[in-house]
Amino acid sequence: MMKRQATEKFVNNNKTKRPFALWAGMMFLVFALALTGCGGGGTSAPANTPDQSAGTDTGTTQDEGQTAGQPIEAKIGAVFILSGSAAAYGEAQRNGLELAKEELNAANEGKLHLSIVYEDTGGKKESAINAVNKLINEDQVVSIIGPTLSSEMFAVGPVANEAETPIFGISNTVEGINDIGPYVFRNSLPESIAVPTAMKVAYEKYHFKTAALIYTNNDDFSVSGYETMKKTAKDLGLDILTEQSFALNDVDFSAQLTKIKEKNPDVLLVSALYKEGSLVVKSAREMGIDAVIIGGNGFNNPKVFEIAGDTAEGLIVATPFSPEKQDPKVQAFVQAYEAKYGKKPDQFAAQAYDGLYIMAESLLKAGAADRQKLRDALASLKDFEGVSGKLSFDENRNPIGEAVVVVAKDGKYVPFE
Amino acid sequence: MDILRVEHVTRKFGGLIALDDVSFSIEKGEIVGLIGPNGAGKTTLFNAITGVFPPTSGSIVFSGMAIDHLPAHRITALGLARTFQNIRLFKELSVLENVMIGRHTRTKSGTFRGMFKTPFERREEEETRARAYDLLARVGLKKRAQDTAGSLPYGEQRRLEIARALATEPKLLLLDEPAAGMNESETHSLQDLLVSFREWGLSMLVVEHDMGFVMSLSDRIVCLNFGAKIAEGTPEEVQAHPLVIEAYLGREEEAV
Amino acid sequence: MRKDCLRFAKYDSDTHGGRGRIAAMFWQQVINGLTVGSTYSLIAVGYTLIFGVLGMINMAHGQIFIFGAITALLTMTELGWPLWLAFIISVVVSSILGWILELTAFKPLRKKDVPHLAPLISTIGFATVLDDLMIKLFGADSRAFPTEPFGGRVTFGPVQIRVVDFVILGVALLLMIVLHLWIERTKLGKAIRATSENIDTAEILGIPTDRVIVFTVVLASGLGGIAGILLGLAYGALMPSMGLTLGFKGLAVLVLGGLGNVPGAMLGGLILGVVEVLSVAYGQSTYRDAVAFLMIMIIFFIRPQGLFGSQEKA
Ligand SMILES: Nc1ncnc2c1ncn2[C@@H]1O[C@H](COP(=O)(O)OP(=O)(O)OP(=O)(O)O)[C@@H](O)[C@H]1O
Ligand SMILES: [Mg+2]
Asked: Which portions of the chain have biased composition (kind: Low complexity) (chain A) (predicted)?
């Protein structure tokens, strides 16, 4: 009997945690793979519709025939990032749109009445697709403004194009946006125009010889900007010493910047959205990289100064819009914007503002809130004078315009000279 | 005066009645043996007394205080300690630390005061260490103080568990098969060790299947079968008890 | 003005031999890795302590410490409070959140007849609530973390280190040494270790395990609060989403270091940081996380119990 006791004891000796350890390990790896697989993209903020009240004030659909005496009732969808880590872009865009809507509705009293339905994507392609489908099918909008990111446009552009609904990008700067289809427009200068302008103007002054590149490698906008930068650097005859990259949501850039510092380039070209971009600039300066830094379109946001602080000083970017520009139209816009929101507009607000003006002009020209007529009116746009410069479309509906080069000084961008 | 009184204790696990209306008591300074075939409910009784699985009904009175439904650490603080049938040392901690942890309730530095090392805490820690060494010397493990507990051979692990239990300064010590797995000479020295604890007036309740060991050690024997008490008395009385003989013989035959 | 800057302090690459420069760069990268890694370590220690006493992963740990750190950041930027006070605020807020977590997510499920993994789910719930609350209170955007007090760099031969990295590494290592000694030497530290090894036995030996658990959860969260501030210093900004992404790093280290093994978590964090940085430095930055997780997988094939876990514990 005693022996039996002893064996039994050994069998149930240890209360072991092994199964859980294994389980935890497996679970963790699954999570890890999921995380790396999707490149850590996106935030978890829910997609909500912050300002739907704007869209509920009219029941008119765009198909109703317009008689001369009645104003055109146009319901427009807006698809922006209003939550998550890139929300500052969408916020500026909504502000610009709202200001333009008020002005336009007042100015065109009796002729045109605009209402806007906002949808939030949180920066996620899936949410953007849902939003666009809802706007087209449920809200029956005549056209869509947005989405904020180029990568989102690549996801939703085909959807709108398929539904023959004009979709108008106000911040999509990647090459090839217009190739999606005939219903896809944008007034944002492609980076292929803006970035080379900045680089050339800076080159004129500094005559740098060597360059290093750093960019977000899992974001369409940043990758496109990087390609443009690289091409321009070659055109300028620069020696590219190193190319570094990181992923969206990365916060540690020390390894990449250490390599760049070791190469000691004359100019550092950064293609990223403001969140990562500002941190890159900040860390680069803190680590003692003293090269001239030229950034892409993503840096056109006041948040850059909030995050990078003093280290932003000297940062060069090209922008279609500068609130410092001595132009009556621009200054009127800046003043109205400041009065309404208590801060200066950035490029995103300006292009949104211009976008709605273009929309209104085209609707008046079309004479009805009709998707097809609106598309044709948009396509024939010529020499539109907006706050972000003069704009026309080429035969592929690509915007033709000019960029201003600005440099960061004392916490804001001032014209570069 | 009795130190422990178990009154009509019943413990059920689902439909299984592991303890069935068990009553008995232990006098101060007495060594009581608890026997019974496998599955009789001996360990379950230990668990009920020490607060691991409180009784479903009935009451347990320790030093005049009802302890059923007190949390286990409070029962320990009152002066009741035990060892385990399946040795349960902190295998990753050192031999010395195992014993020092046993003194948790006997040191004044409260859970939160124990965070800092004031002179008071330092002195107390030294005292704890010294007492732990004494206990290790007593069970013959002083030389192994710095080894990890898991590295000890089996017999020494059993003795370390006893030292750790003693560190809580119990008035009543519950030993669940302390001689299991030991050879004859180890069993002998264990018996001497346990008898020597009488000098402190320590009461003991010992579960053991080694009949020679438990009969010669105990003043009194309680026998359980199928959760119920079937006999109680001196070793001679219990050994001669027909129900006890039947319980063991019945089981032996089954086992053959 | 940038022009002089451009040519300023340009160290002459010819004075160092090619090999010397490569070695210097390597050490520079190792230090980068250690700095990042020391923050991973601190985060991982939080998971590890709780895993030790509860045998459960606290999925809300990341949200808890980032909540504490952002609150502290706001006291600095909005109220002008100093950095040392921010450390305290962060620790206090994180600790309180930890305590609420214990009360709401862990305790109600303890000793109840619930599935083993139920507390895991309740901590995920807690994390979701904190995430939403942070978006409401702070917004999802990144906020600059003032690093001015530690501007500048120190030079050791060819290696240059940001002062702020020194501070981070120093604080993190000091904290870990103190924590290690505390766990090894003090009565409460022993009680935590005993509870980690076997909670029932600890209870029987007179340790009030319920209180030990509360204390451990609060301690782990408070340590997270310090880690959060160090993250702010290291990266120059904080945002709510860092709770999730860096939380995952901490989880990786928990598993890497051997579940519930505190020194393992400390070393594991440093190792993960260095491996990550070196994989970027000498490989492809695209695969930063992938390389790190691949390393963890390989380690599990070789040592299923984790780097420092003992056989029985795993
Ligand atoms: N936690 C539990 N849950 C369910 N049943 C249990 C539990 N603990 C004990 N039992 C059952 O109670 C009965 C008594 O078991 P116990 O361990 O007390 O016997 P024992 O007398 O100690 O036996 P042994 O001599 O083999 O150690 C057994 O049938 C056992 O299966
Ligand atoms: Mg038993």
From this structure: 54-66
